[in-house]
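Input:
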Amino acid sequence: MKKIVKNPLIILAAGLVIVAGSSVGATRAAITYSNEAETVDFSTSKLSVDIRELQGDEYVSISGDNGLKFTSIAEDESLKLGKAYPENVVVVNDSTGAYDEYVRVVVRKAWKDADGSKDTLLDPDLIELGVTSGWEASEADDTAEQDVYYYTSPLAPGDTVQFMDTLTINGKVTKYVKTVDGKTAGTVVNEYKYDNKTFFVELKVDAVQAHNAEESILGAWGVNATVNEDGNITTLGN
Amino acid sequence: MKNKKFLLVAAALLVIGAASVKPAVAYFTDTQKANGEYTISLGDSPITPTEEVQGMTKIITVTNTGDYDAFVRVKAIHASNISDSLNSEASGWTKNGDYYYYASSLAKGEAASPLSIDINVEQEIADVDTFNVVIIEEATKAIYDAEGNPSADWSDEANKVMSREDYDAMFTKGSTENEEDNN
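Output:
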């Protein structure tokens, strides 16, 4: 008897029998059903602002290079000096979340030569932007080329506020004129300094969260503002 | 002994952890930039008059041969014994003082309606039986108000040209008088 049990072949056979017996039970499984796990994404909404110009009948977002088209001037046969052309630019709070924001617009104006380089001897004040009421100009940031306008109340998401409605080139540009000798002897021709010059306007809109108003305006813009209970900016310091 | 080492390492880790925990704080902001430009052109338009004589009436047509809008006026120059007056058939022209003014501005290429001037000899002078009447015409730029309505300013003040020295001084690099306020 011992000899039989000790025989390796018998042990192998016994082992196989045990293994086969255990696997038969293991392959049985209950029928289960489950959905693929659903993932949930958490993200914070973005605070966002947009600037748009009325071109034709609709407001078009103009961020980026050469977005401002000055459509009403382009439609006129020639630019009439002194005429207040309608130029409607609005600022929109297009945040996806419930973010109120304070906005300001930094305006830079300049004259450029035919080759595109800035001509600093020409006066940018002759490019007149008609900024609508409700925007406060900051004297501290004003330079000959730059103006900063702050909107005193916060913009709710989806709200639009008009920034400017006219653009005028002052007729005083015609005063800068001298005579040069004409082609035929004894004649003189007028030469205008502003002839063939290009006026350039840049609008940069900044938005900052309305929550914690005074700290956020100071932290983001470096401006000491006081805000009253309605959320309106009452003073702008430095 | 071993304990102390562990404690040291643990303390070091704690300090590093505490120092790095402080988060970066920023306020939510956004910004957009937009720009645009446009070229202006300024200039004077030469105007070309043509004359025709019918009897004692001169008929003058004025055409704007330049690129810019202009208002025009015409003057007749003659000896003092002769006078000129506006013929009733001329429409759009009015006489004011010595000049005949055209009511509206002439656009590029546009011609004014014909101006008829009657020449009258007030007083005959002995031995003089021919005379000349010279026509001069002038043009000035159209000035626009906020609504875009054109008007003309014929005064010397509005048509003053800067002297070449002043102009060159103002528009040379390094000049300090390039701030506005041109008187």
